[in-house]
Amino acid sequence: MEPFVYQGTPSRVVFSWGALATLPEEVERLGARRALILATPEQRALADEVARVLGERAAGVHAEAVMHVPVSVARAALDTAAALDADCCVAVGGGSAIGLGKAIALESSLPIVAVPTTYAGSEMTPIYGLTEGRLKRTGRDPRVLPRTVIYDPSLTLSLPAEVTATSGMNAMAHAVEALYAEDANPTVSLMAEKSIRALGVALPAVVRAPDDAAMRSRALYGAWLAGTCLGAVGMALHHKLCHTLGGTFNLPHARTHAAMLPHTAHYNHAAAPAALARVARALGGREAAEAGPLLFALNRALGIPAALAALGMPEQGLDEAADLACRNPYANPRPVEREAIRALLGRAWQGAAPA
Ligand SMILES: NC(=O)C1=CN([C@@H]2O[C@H](COP(=O)(O)OP(=O)(O)OC[C@H]3O[C@@H](n4cnc5c(N)ncnc54)[C@H](OP(=O)(O)O)[C@@H]3O)[C@@H](O)[C@H]2O)C=CC1
Ligand SMILES: O=C(O)/C=C\C(=O)CC(=O)O
């Protein structure tokens, strides 16, 4: 057996259809009495419903979350938390709302209860992201790991097909990178493979039939496993590239992950053949070299645009993106070489198949 280190995260996870109803007792379990509810502006109605469920334990609603957590947005939320004398945050929504909760916790150490409504998986990680100007800074800090996560698949029924598909592929990316992480271990790899299998079946099903309760639960289960993987082991080339494209060029997060994953998986297949063979097998293939093409085919089956160009990436930015991605690269099975990365970005920009 290869030597390894496995360290789980201390989050408490409640997973069931209708689990939102357990929120009051979960907030009480933390000893909290004044919860600040966080959401994006468009999820205000859901945040108000959460406040109703919480009753007297709701201190207020702050529905100003924005993707990539601009530092100005974080500062405003911190001021609201202080003004309301909040003793915990309830972040309801996708990674943007949860990311705002993390920004508050990073400064205040307030406990977070996360109620995810997408498959991004941020609720299961001690990773935060803050964006200032054109640069996104990410880091790991135990203070930002949500203490409790309430997964209620009924809250994902309203996800549009495009978000369902791309957010699901964001989760897929966490699981794929966990299999070849520098600190990969048998426990996380088992979860990663299970996640890829679950998402590979559930995502096409819920894109076809958004109200399929069983498949919505399986998709969210896959996302939980993927987020757990992301929280437990390091990220590699794929996440570095997506943070660069998201933070510097403000590309949409999940759609960028989906478009890039076939290419980054293929980039690493020869350097991490066992890991990419597990990806391929989980998607119905056999060999490591099939993983990238199978992910590319899954994107197509989910109706996800293949080309970075369609996401607003300027062609003249590809050189800068390659330079930034190669500066302080995350550990990766294959050396991150500037020309190879620029060629990868070129294929992704065009929407060509991985090669
Ligand atoms: N730190 C970490 O470990 C991780 C962080 N992230 C971060 O999270 C963000 C991306 O997360 P993601 O969830 O993709 O992005 P968002 O939170 O922006 O949600 C994605 C889309 O889903 C919509 N949506 C969310 N919930 C519902 C709902 N219940 N019904 C209908 N639509 C809904 C949002 O609409 P609307 O905007 O209108 O609410 C938005 O259009 C990025 O900032 C990324 O960096 C992602 C993964 C891991
Ligand atoms: O890229 C991901 O999906 C994972 C991590 C982040 O997004 C970091 C952040 O919170 O911005």
Produce a short descriptive summary.
The chain is α/β, with parallel strands linked by helices and 355 residues long. The protein has helices at 23-29, 44-54, 71-83, 95-108, 161-179, 186-208, 213-232, 237-249, 253-268, 273-282, 291-301, 318-326, 338-350; strands spanning 12-15, 35-38, 58-62, 88-93, 112-116, 127-132, 135-140, 148-151. Residues 10-153 form the Alcohol dehydrogenase iron-type/glycerol dehydrogenase GldA domain.
Please write out the topology.
Blueprint lengths: L11 E4 L7 H7 L5 E4 L5 H11 L3 E5 L8 H13 L4 E6 L1 H14 L3 E5 L10 E6 L2 E6 L7 E4 L9 H19 L6 H23 L4 H20 L4 H13 L3 H16 L4 H10 L8 H11 L16 H9 L11 H13 L5
Parallel strand pairs: 1-8, 2-3, 2-4, 4-5, 5-8
Antiparallel strand pairs: 6-7
Helix pairs in contact: 3-4, 5-6, 5-7, 5-9, 6-7, 8-9, 8-12, 9-11, 9-13, 12-13
The structure holds NADPH dihydro-nicotinamide-adenine-dinucleotide phosphate and the ligand O=C(O)/C=C\C(=O)CC(=O)O.
NADPH dihydro-nicotinamide-adenine-dinucleotide phosphate binds next to helix 4, strand 6, helix 5 and helix 9.
Strand order, main sheet: write it out: 1-8-5-4-2-3
Major sheet, described briefly?
Answer: 6 strands, parallel
Instruction: Compute the number of helices.
Output: 13
- Based on CA atoms alone, the radius of gyration comes out at 19 Å
Spans where pLDDT lies below 50 across 5 or more residues: none
Mean pLDDT: 96
Q: Structural class from helices and strands?
A: alpha/beta
Counted beta strands: 8
CATH architecture of the largest domain: Up-down Bundle
Oligomer: single chain
Kindly report the name of the CATH homologous superfamily of the largest domain: Dehydroquinate synthase-like - alpha domain
Topology order in helix (H) and strand (E) letters: EHEHEHEHEEEEHHHHHHHHH
How many separate domains? 2
Distance between the termini: 33 Å
- CATH classification, class level of the largest domain: Mainly Alpha
Q: Shape, please?
A: globular
Family: Belongs to the iron-containing alcohol dehydrogenase family.
Protein name: maleylacetate reductase
InterPro entries: ADH_Fe/GldA (IPR001670), ADH_Fe_C (IPR056798), Alcohol_dehydrogenase_Fe (IPR039697), MAR (IPR034786)
Keywords: Aromatic hydrocarbons catabolism, NAD, Oxidoreductase
